[in-house]
Design goal:
- The chain has 18 helices and 14 strands.
- It is α/β, with parallel strands linked by helices.
- The strands form two sheets. It has an eight-stranded mixed β-sheet with strand order 3-4-2-1-5-7-8-6, with helices on both faces. A six-stranded antiparallel β-sheet has the order 10-11-9-12-14-13.
- The longest helix has 28 residues.
- The protein is globular, with a radius of gyration of 24 Å.
Length: 470
């Protein structure tokens, strides 16, 4: 049968009870749909570390513990937060009780496992650092297992033949590939007569967090769609993919994308606003599975379809931006000498710094990176050790990007610079590649928001111009 594989993000999961009679019963159809769920909103931050602020969760407290108190208290906070999360979405007292027992059992199992590991590593033959990746995986799977369990209870209570598919490998053999883990779990599942609720985390021999860290749920989602031959992969978010941030340019000014391709999805990932993790997009692209991004709370809206089709006509689709740091390495002896850039790249890779864009001339290489000044100070120190005569500096800047499947003939670079200047602001630099899918404008950080608004007005339109066009 033709089925879809659909993913619900963490923020939407915290409102999953609102989706019970809408999203899960789309057009009255219950089955032929496989759902992959993330942890409830905020839970993974408590388990690992806060994604934005960096505040330590259980993992960070355990990894850097001087004593047991911090991570034990962290686990207690996770238990309280998990129970509050499922109490907010489950109505029936029996379901709440079962979910609470599930949380307490898993939390205590994790506590015992970490205590045993800590005790083992008191012996000189064992090093805690060698086991931290497994600890991170163990903790991550806890969040998705909980949300999937609670969602299954919620749907079963509503008369849906929902089935929990736990890929977290709890008390299971660990030496299993991701594909084998998925195929074994789905072997006896019949999407035609039941609704599988699948954990976004999958324990496997490859170790999802080694490469993808917190992007693992989209990797599980994409592999599940590819392996089961899904007709479509669907991601349900709390918003539509729009031409810009509506809070920035105005709700009446933004347009839903409606249709785009994987090239644009890759550019969005590069700008830190992933429609989907780039490795997950690659999996879907190679399996020829189209991706749809919808607003979970507008189930009748088809959202935005992402596939491999080129644009019929040139056009700008989205304007976005990102705070960056410019790492500039000036070395007079660089002229005509090979290898400078490779050495700098090695340093950036060693410090796990993500490169957004770069440019170079005869004696200067500038990398625009998504990082912090604290990390960049360490990067500067390592580069200075390699090139003691070089002048190295890091500067906080911002980068605005105009993105579309085909920007040819639109004079985006020229018109963009003029639009920013007409708004009373100045660019430090701008770049456009021959592929014609994005144009980037570099500026001071305090210019980014008004620049995005100006660029959006130029290429997409203001609220007033859109109303006039209608």
């Amino acid at each position: 049968m033709t089925h879809t594989v659909e993913k619900i993000g963490g923020t939407s999961m915290s409102r999953v009870h609102e989706l019970r009679d809408t999203l899960f019963r789309r057009d009255g159809d219950l089955y032929g749909r496989i759902f992959v769920v993330s942890a409830f909103g905020g839970i993974t931050n408590l388990l690992l570390e806060h994604k934005k602020s960096g505040d330590p969760g259980v993992y960070a407290q355990f990894a850097h513990a001087d004593n047991d108190r911090g991570w034990h208290e962290g686990l207690d906070r996770v238990a309280v937060a998990m129970i509050e999360a499922h109490e907010a979405v489950l109505d029936h007292p029996a379901d709440v009780e079962r979910a609470t027992d599930f949380v307490r059992g898993r939390i205590e199992d994790v506590r015992n496992a970490l205590t045993d590991l800590q005790r083992l590593c008191n012996y000189g033959h064992f090093r805690l650092a060698e086991h931290l990746l497994q600890v991170r995986e163990l903790l991550s799977g806890l969040g998705e297992a909980h949300s999937a369990f609670a969602t299954t209870l919620l749907l079963q209570r509503a008369g849906v033949n929902a089935r929990l598919v736990d890929l977290s490998g709890w008390r299971d053999e660990g030496d299993v590939t991701l594909d084998d883990r998925i195929l074994r779990a789905m072997d006896r599942v019949d999407p035609a007569t039941e609704m599988p609720i699948v954990t976004g985390y999958a324990q496997c021999a490859e170790g999802l967090m080694r490469e993808f860290d917190r992007g693992y749920s989209e990797v599980t989602f994409s592999r599940l769609a590819a392996l089961t031959g899904a007709a479509e992969a669907i991601i349900h978010k709390e918003f539509h993919l729009s031409s810009a941030d509506p809070n920035l340019v105005g709700q009446d000014a933004v347009r839903k994308l409606g249709r785009t391709n994987y090239d644009v999805a890759d550019q969005l990932s590069n700008m830190g606003m992933e429609a989907i993790h780039p490795k997950a997009a690659k999996t879907l692209r190679q399996a020829e599975v189209p991706l749809r991004v919808t607003n979970a709370f507008e189930p009748d809206d088809p959202g935005t379809l992402i596939d491999d089709q080129p644009a019929e006509t040139p056009g700008v689709e989205i304007v976005t931006g990102l705070d960056i740091i410019a790492l500039e390495v000036f070395e007079q002896d660089m002229v005509g000498v090979k290898g400078y850039d490779a050495a700098i790249l090695d340093v950036l890779k060693r410090h796990d710094v993500r490169i957004v864009s770069k440019l170079s001339n005869a004696n200067t290489i500038t990398h625009y990176v998504d990082s912090s000044l604290k990390v960049m100070k360490r990067v500067e120190k390592d580069i200075a050790a390699l090139y003691p005569q070089a002048e190295i500096r890091s500067k906080t800047l911002a980068l605005a990007s105009v993105i579309g499947r085909d920007l040819s003939t639109l004079r985006v670079l020229q018109r963009g610079l003029c639009a920013i200047a007409d708004a009373g602001h100045e660019c430090i630099g701008a770049t456009q590649g021959p592929r014609n899918v994005d144009v980037q404008f570099v500026m001071d950080r305090d210019v980014l928001k008004p620049a995005i608004k100006a660029l959006h007005g130029e290429f997409i339109g203001t609220g007033e111009s859109l109303k006039a066009a209608a």
